[in-house]
Amino acid sequence: MTRKKRRLVLISSALAVLGVAVGLVLVALRDNIVFFYGPSELAQKAPLAGQRLRIGGLVKQGSLVHEGGRTVRFAVTDTKQEVVVTYTGLLPDLFREGQGVVAEGTLGQDNIFLADSILAKHDERYMPREVADALKKQGLWREGAEAASMGK
After folding, report:
1. What is the CA radius of gyration of the chain?
2. pTM beyond 0.70
3. Count of structural domains within the chain
4. CA-based, 20 to 30 A from 13: which of 30, 87, 103, 106?
5. What CATH number is associated with residue 42?
6. DSSP letters of the chain?
7. What would the pLDDT profile of 75-102 be if each residue is shown by its tens digit?
């Protein structure tokens, strides 16, 4: 084999190994990708039932219902659309109506979101980035002191 052919075989082999490695990484990460939706985006895009995703918005006033045990049902809203969420487990201490929340789980066949984790804001100035971006798109986001005074 000439030197030129050996170099070509080496480069081809290296590219093949790199391609296989990239393919394996992408297959492994495919199951870990979780898409974020606001209630309006969820209504427009209608993801498949059972697909893992995150929804975020505000917990609708008057929607929190304790269904016995540690199961709760509430609505997440962006003031245009809302999504009913059920969750079994301990809610974060600062979870309450009118506050920002991100729920991770799956959308059921009946369009009820089955959450397996809930994240709530931790003070008057913090809002999960995805929720804040969704509220900013709709013109509902209040910056700075105005937002802090609204939360108290």
Report:
1. 22
2. no
3. 2
4. 30
5. 2.40.50.140
6. --HHHHHHHHHHHHHHHHHHHHHHHHHHHHTT--EEE-HHHHHHH-PPTT-EEEEEEEEPTT--EE-STTEEEEEEE-SS-EEEEEEESPPPTT--TTSEEEEEEEE-TTS-EEEEEEEE--STT---HHHHHHHHHTT----HHHHHHHH-
7. 988 878 888 899 988 888 888 888 888 8
